[in-house]
Amino acid sequence: MGAGKSTIGAALAARFQVALCDTDDEIERRSGRSIPQIFADDGEAAFRALEADVVADVIASHDGVVSLGGGAVMTEAVRGVLTEQAVVYLEIGPTAGFARVAHSNRPLLAAPDPAARYADLLAQRAPTYRAVAAVVVNADRDPRMVVDDIVARLADVPSDSSDQTQ
After folding, report:
1. Is 64 in contact with 21 (CB distance < 8 Å)?
2. Average pLDDT value over all residues in the chain
3. Which residues contribute to the annotated binding site for ATP?
4. In the list 17, 46, 83, 114, which could disulfide-bond 42, CB 3.0-4.6 Å?
């Protein structure tokens, strides 16, 4: 959350002259509901199952940049479909990341201390993000610099995993 996946994803898609698919947007389009509404109505487990289905469909059918929600890779099924993809982890610290989402409607931050909740989620997820990623970049800087860094580092990723950028 707050790492800049939408901004960076759009910039990467433009740079590579391909389409962007943001799986959060796709989940909302397919379900006809917002993510906060899905969480409220159905709970996180149901959302994660829907997310896994959408991610699998998108990875199989989309020929471009795919932007995943922050918790997507915590689901084993999602990690499975990413094994041959050039996954990019937009790394950001808890203070900078929370500052970007502090005033948003994020279901997982509905807590007495949202900043502490954000930091806890990031600490729990970071090892998985790193394990899945082919490329790790510092996302706490100008988006143009982040995109330039990603493009340069993707050039070093073996071609069998660079068909799509996550």
Report:
1. yes
2. 92
3. 2-7, 106, 141
4. 46
The answer to whether residues 91 and 137 touch, using CB atoms and an 8 Å cutoff, is yes
> Residue 19: in which H helix or E strand, if any?
strand 19-22
Q: Which residues contact 76 (CB under 8 A, 6 or more apart)?
A: none
**Binding site listing:** 2-7, 24, 48, 70, 106, 125, 141
The residue with greater pLDDT, 104 or 39, is: 39
* Cβ pair 78, 23 in contact under 8 A: no
Annotated binding site for Mg(2+): 6
Residue 9 buriedness (CB in 10 A; 0-12 / 13-18 / 19+): buried
Question: Helices in the chain by DSSP H: which ranges?
Answer: 5-16, 23-31, 35-42, 44-61, 76-81, 94-101, 114-132, 143-154
